[in-house]
Amino acid sequence: MKKRSIAILQVAIFVFFLIYFTQISPLLPFNGDDFFFNGSMRVPFPLWGVWNPTRVFPEVFSPICGYVAAFCVYPFTHDYVGAVGLVRAIVVSGFITLFFYLFYKLLKNRFGYSNKVAVAAEIFFLLSFFLLFKHLNQSSYTGFWDADFDSTLFYLVPGLMNASVILWMARYKDLHAQLNSMTILQQGLFLLVLYFVLFSNTQFTIILATYVFFKMATETIKNFKAEKSVVVILQKIWIYISILVVWLLTIMFDVNGGRSGSLTQNQSFLVVFKETLGQFKIFVSQQNLMFISLGSVLIVVAIFLCITKRDRQAKTLSFAIFNGIFCLILTTVYLLLAYTKAGSYYAGREDAVWPITFFFLYCVSISAAYVISRSRIIKRLTPLLLVLLSLLAFNFNYQPIPSTTGTYDAKTVKAVDNYIIKQIVKADRAGKSKVIVKVPVNDKNHSPKVGTSNWPHSYDMAGELQNALYAHHIIRTRMKIVFKPDYSVNKKFYENKTNEQPFINLEK
């Protein structure tokens, strides 16, 4: 299979996800945070004691996306909300495509699979993110779902970045030697990537931290058994030690941040931990148990084949599976403890526990690649199996659960956004310094005294929206915006789901 064919596959993956995030399950801003982080930039380094001390990447990259949308896309489309959504879709699709390409390169370079086997496994890996959550008789989550527009850069993309880094690192048997062989520019780019990966999301940097800890431990044991000197061992593992030290510093920063300080628990740790486990059970219940079972069987079969073959490839794969399972277990424990502190409901959110999803599907997919490579029968069946799995994964009789607060349809979200922004722009053009804006009623107990009430169109969102519209030159001044929840907006824009009809099955 030629390099051109591989490039075409990656382009096809990018185009598919671009269509997915613009047409099938569009990414559009809706709540205050969506606009706030898209139009306000922090300084690009960690800050002690602030609300989010180490979330540098999302709070820098999100406004960059906003600038590109406002200054490069909007002038041509004259559709502000659409421009913001398009740029975000392009960015997310790009990170996903890179993630899958690096998985392909790992299979090709480290495991030595043929192009055909590596491509088949890459496609299976992609499908698995849909199949894991697929339910044909209802709307389903996917492995690329986020709770809202803002979360794509706070959860999904940091997860993809961390996973991509370890997929790149895992390609090399001797990472120390690989780093030494790189040019100064390449080493600098590697450090640049590490910087933004480590300062992205401390819940998701556990992906990199667990992998690095495992590699540091195994490299130390291997070199110690070979009777290497302490100096030689340190030379081999210095990069792992450095990453872990920085990671621990990010944890220290976050523990002493404003967000962490606001999380006071009135109940005992055990009570809250039990609630977290309950939420985690909800996360598991959203998954397709048949796929989990089949994936687990694939892992067991691959391990069995490794034991019987005992060649170099089998040894490499068994080590990778053990590494993945180790990281999966440690990551699960870490996130359960973290969300016991941060809020038990996070443990039930698919996007917040993405690291667990990644490590499980990684183990399943590298196992699938090995099984395919070892069986002529499976090789012959692979095209048929991939097509059948694709038809299951991309069955949209029920729409995917949208990445929007309140799970409103994308058409509804865009119409409400434009209605709100139009009122503000009209007042700005009229030279007013203050405007009262009608917004939907989302909380019947809303009160101006509680700035966060009436989410997703909270009273606080007025100032956050002003930040974005001013920074993006949609309005000329930092005018005072006051939100006024009004049921007439609900009636005008929100869809009516009180009498939804069931799907009519083709084969009754």
| Rg, alpha carbons | 24 Å
Strand order of the largest sheet: 1-2
Largest sheet: 2 strands, parallel
Helix content: 55-70%
Low-pLDDT segments:
none
Number of beta-strand segments? 2
Average residue-wise pLDDT? 95
The number of helical segments is 19
- List the secondary-structure elements in sequence, H or E: HHHHHHHHHHHHHHHHHEHEH
Span of the ends, CA to CA: 43 Å
Give the overall shape.
globular
Task: State the secondary-structure class.
Answer: mainly alpha
Strand content: under 5%
List the helices and strands and how they pair.
Elements: H1 3-24, H2 32-39, H3 56-77, H4 80-109, H5 115-131, H6 151-169, H7 175-181, H8 184-198, H9 206-225, H10 230-255, H11 258-261, H12 269-285, H13 289-309, H14 312-342, H15 354-374, H16 376-393, H17 410-429, E1 434-439, H18 461-471, E2 480-485, H19 487-493
Parallel strand pairs: 1-2
Helix pairs in contact: 1-4, 2-18, 3-4, 4-5, 4-6, 5-15, 5-16, 6-8, 6-9, 9-10, 9-14, 12-14, 13-14, 13-15, 14-15, 15-16
List its traits:
508 residues; mainly alpha; two-stranded parallel sheet
Structure description:
By secondary structure, the chain is mostly helical. The chain is built from 19 helices and two strands. It has helices at 3-24, 32-39, 56-77, 80-109, 115-131, 151-169, 175-181, 184-198, 206-225, 230-255, 258-261, 269-285, 289-309, 312-342, 354-374, 376-393, 410-429, 461-471, 487-493, and strands spanning 434-439, 480-485. The protein has a two-stranded parallel sheet. Helix 18 (461-471) links the parallel strand 1 (434-439) and strand 2 (480-485). Helix 1 packs antiparallel against helix 4, helix 4 packs parallel to helix 6 (151-169) and helix 6 (151-169) packs across helix 8 (184-198). It is globular, with a radius of gyration of 24 Å. The two termini are 43 Å apart.
